[in-house]
Amino acid sequence: MIRAAIGLAWSAWGGHAAVIAGSLLALQIHAAYRVPAAAFVALLPWLGVVVTVATILMLTVNLMPTARGRRAGAVRTYTRRSVAGLAAIVIATTVAGALAGMSSPAAALLGLALAAVVASVVGLTGRLLAEGTVAFAARWLYRASLLGLAAFLVWTAVVLVNGALDRAAASEEASEVLSVVTAPIDPGIGGLIPYAHVEVRSWREGGALESLVLSPRERQRMWVGQPVMVTVRPGFLGIPWVASLKLDEARHLRQVLAASPRAFHAMQRLIAIHLERQQWDEAMELTRRYAEAYPDDVAVLEQVATVLGGAGRYRDQGELIERLVVRSQARNTGS
Amino acid sequence: MNWHVLRVWVVIAVAVGSFIAQRDLSRMDPVFFRLSAPGAKGFLLYFAGRYEAAAASYREHWRAAISGGATTGDPGSDLILTGDLTAAERLAHQDIGRGLASLRAKLLLAEVALERDLPSTAARLATEVLAASPDDVDAEVMLAVARAREGAAPDAIAALGRAVRAGRAGVRLVTFYQALAGTGALAARPDRARSPCLLAHFHLYLRAFDHAQARPAARVARKAIKAGDRPADAYVVLGVLHEKAGRPDDALAAFEAARQADPRHAEAHRWAAVMYGQRGDLLNEYRAITMALEVSGELFYADHFFEVAVNKIGDPARAAALLEPLVARAPDDVRLRERLGRVWALLGDATRALEHYERAAALAPGNPELPNAIGTALSRLGRQDDAVTALRRAAELAPRWSEPHRRMASIHYLRSRYPDAIAEAELAQRLGDQDVQLRVLLREAGLRSP
Fold it and tell me: Which pTM was predicted?
């Protein structure tokens, strides 16, 4: 039975199923250890298309009759001329990259990558023109889609290692949701996995906005204009990642108070937040405002005075106690 | 035919049938399933989208069944379905002027009027019912059917909008068949002679009986938007359908489009507030529901507005400003009076709070919360004896409720009547009151008691 299972896993069908399942599971990793990379986040919804195409191609390739004859040999040999052409690409790209301000190794790598891409495209086109069969095209497309999925899984592994092994301290960054983009990752049979990402104002110097993948639960709690607190971690591999994206309650309450300046629940909660964060001046200012709006509610003043006393803010505490005494005298005299 | 091939086809048919049954039939109201030949015919016609013919077949089912001794459970409906409109009318006239029965009688008369194709009479009767019972879904549907027959699409849309926002389906069988036939008649008209927005509203209402109605409702709503036929209403239909289907993003987008199309569309504002509330966006929820109440001035929006403005953000001043004008429209609405009492109490105006609480208590003498609130207001005004009397009344109405006793204990304690304070505090504790201040009061009163 174990041999049968291993055989299934090794077979095209089992292997394909494993790759697809792995790709879908990888989404959870990207929602948990999200790296703010705009290009990757924008490409993520296409995962569904790649999965569907790969599945169709796998079925096509495996149902096609195996070619009896030997595969056609290479139709093009690497001549000195072609090698020289590739080398020219590498050199030209490296020089251009260096002139554009890239570091030398990065420019060289870019040149190599470009040369490899050109060589692959030329080679593949040559084979396609030589063999000219649908089967050949399907096989190569299937391999290309598998390569895409493999690249995605490798990146997922990097993201996983970077996030899961990160033990460094996190930093809290204030930001704001600028847009919420919802696009189902559709493998062809409906929106199986709800996928969304947000674009938030960047907390990095010189950055305009950051794209972050959202978990389904977070999606339900996001809106445009929402003030958020982003928890950023440096990353085990040095790639900064976002651990959480939460409503910045204090800023949200300030927005509410701007719309409704006498909202007592909002004021009470904001006072409590300021006290928790030991923002004493802000707490005092708001408590004064509260006392003006709701002079009969002495309980809030008593609570704030107690906390301020505990924190050694005796002058502020005294001011509040004075207000309480004045209020008590006013009540006793019936005014 | 090859036996093997036949078996394969049977299995495929059963599989497909099961899928359709699971998806569509399980979400249909039993009103569509009638065990008779005309009942089955009605079902098939309904499934084929021929609603007028379906309604006629269902009526045929009932005519035969009632003649055979069955009943719909409502004598008036039985008479209409057997075609005896005169007897139905006579039955209604017997009940007119007898409280709730009077409203039912008026609804019966409205149904008879629709049967006789007298839509203006039906509309008048339905309006009379709604004046006395604004939440009556059947009356709204009757009004919509009547107005649709008169060609007054905006009024019909408004009535169906109110029926849908009530969040429940009507219960009158004849009204349902009239709405079903009305939908079919409207759908059969040529495009230029019908309001797609009204048709979308009929389908939306029928969705309460059959979830599959969401598809035609959305299709026709999109057509209405394209044709510019009351796009705000049509967007609201789309939004409601998205919301019911669990697509909150699409729903909010539709409601926002409705708000843009018509900034005075109260229902669009309310739905937007609901969606923002689900997200936790207090600011936009508050803005949207405030807008809904401001543009409509309707009592219906008062509850949601109060919940957000007072219970969530705590702005009683704004609540008082928007809720007070509603008293002129609905002076005898207990909930409104109770809420205004609370608003004024929060604003420290015990006199105005007392005024509203007393009015509410007169309208709902059996509600213990009202004398309890009256007692609190009286206590704040320094009328302690009256306060205790009111709190005793609350305790009488709800003998297992500790709060009136706790409040009485507090009043007695402040007046140095320590034995009375102890008695009330102990009673409150026996009733399960765990309040810390009550424990302190009990201890202090015990120390001071002679």
Answer: 0.79
